Amino acid sequence: MPTAPIDPLVLAVDSSTTATKALVVDSTGVTLAQGRAGYDTINPGRDRYEQDATAWVEATTTAIAQAVAALAPEERGRIAALCITPQRQSFVLCDEDGTPRRNAILWLDGRAGDEVRDLGSRRVHELSGMVPDVTPSFYKLAWLARNEPESLRSADRIAGVHAYLVHAFTGEWIDSRATADSLGLFDMAALDWSDELLRLAGVERRQLPVLGDAGSVLAHVRPDVARGWGLPGPIPVVGGCGDGQAAGLGAGATAPDEAYLNLGTAVVAGVHAPDYRWGASYRTDAAGIPGSFVLEVVQNSGAYLAGWFRTELGDPALLGAPDPELERAAAAVPPGSDGLLTMPYWNAVQSPHWDPLARGAMIGFTGTHSRAAMYRSVLEGISLEAARNLRALEADTGTPLRVVRIMGGGQRSDLWRSILAACVGVPLEACAAEEVSALGAAVLAVSAVTGNDVASTAAAMTRRGEVTTPDPALVARYAEIGELQGEIYGRLSDLFPRLQALG
């Protein structure tokens, strides 16, 4: 790492599923400027989700240029590093120069159900850390090997979002271990490509990038690219981590008794672990802290489900936006929603059952139930499931949680926070930053610039917001409700294949 300016700034990029955000951040975690550019998703068939990978580069270029343009000229010279956090488990097949050979396949693509059934063994789970599910790229690569063998065989490179962007800006095919892991081709314990998994997926090692550590300098932005952004010279590119792991860093949740929880479209929560482990209720990721791991639980229906309810059954004039009147009415409904229980599997289920055929359900209706009771039951169903998943993490690690740091749109609801705190049973600390994953990328960049370790840098750069303390009476009440709600999946799971056939 070259000598950094006395008061360095870093570029932090979050390349998500729908848009790229670029932030200029100082070493205390303050954002000085930002930019944003979006891109479209292509839906070529049922359960198929793709993107033009060149749009990732164009959007990142636009977002960075916007952020840099908002700086004073003297501030631009203080930018000392770039770090990217990407959407995980999305990848592209391309030529050596980065030209895509087909559209990129996204993490939410569900085409590989047969491959999950055929290849999703205990051995693959143990090696990769990924529970057999349609999300990991491993199964979609295997789908390509079966259905588009020439596209996979003839591709010079197979790259996740991070590797693709690093190559576009530096000319080097190099990736961070904490982003390359999401291809599902890792021997996760060794943090290296697994020859066994490569063979099963039909991938050759020559097609994959060289690996470096998160928080280390991987390469340097080419001078012409830097000039296009409005920067005076090339800057180091620091190895990033996936957007979920970056959210943990941006929340300052780096100890085993500190969880992060993103109450966004999906609910994603996790804890750091110093040693590799794998389990049935969570997936294991390489952490932004080199040599460490993140144990992560995932629920597909989070704020999406609350928004679905408001759109389909709420005030039509609000078009699904938060409804203060509905919130007040739901807050007046007793805990347990007068016996109405929700199984929140509108988008199937990942943790803890990993069942792509699972369906949502509301059970316990009577003629007295109102829209407010239904809405509260939705919030309770999501929260009870999150609590069940976090308890599974506690049981596996043997470490009780001390705090859960939350982020995402759902945290803005006072009612939802109070329900979630009571279900989880530990305090919830809101994150003050708006772009928490991007802040996690900034943490890695600042760590590389200053030479300080990642965990202490995260502690110095993150800020806490409002704290929601669980009501002891509600904790006991939701424990009782959760026990009954947790039985619903087992009672209904045999029906899901038949419901799928009907559809």
What do these coordinates show?
By secondary structure, the chain is α+β, with helices and mostly antiparallel strands. Among the domains are: 9-240, ATPase, nucleotide binding domain (Nucleotidyltransferase, domain 5); 305-345 and 356-382 and 483-502, ATPase, nucleotide binding domain (Nucleotidyltransferase, domain 5). The protein contains 20 helices and 24 strands. The strands form seven sheets. A seven-stranded mixed sheet has the order 18-19-17-16-22-23-24. A six-stranded mixed sheet has the order 3-2-1-6-15-14, with helices on both faces. A three-stranded antiparallel sheet has the order 4-5-8, with no helix packed on it. A hairpin with a 4-residue loop joins β11 and β12. α13 packs across α14 (371-397). The longest helix is centred in the C-terminal third of the chain and has 27 residues, at 371-397. The protein is globular, with a radius of gyration of 22 Å. The mean pLDDT is 95.
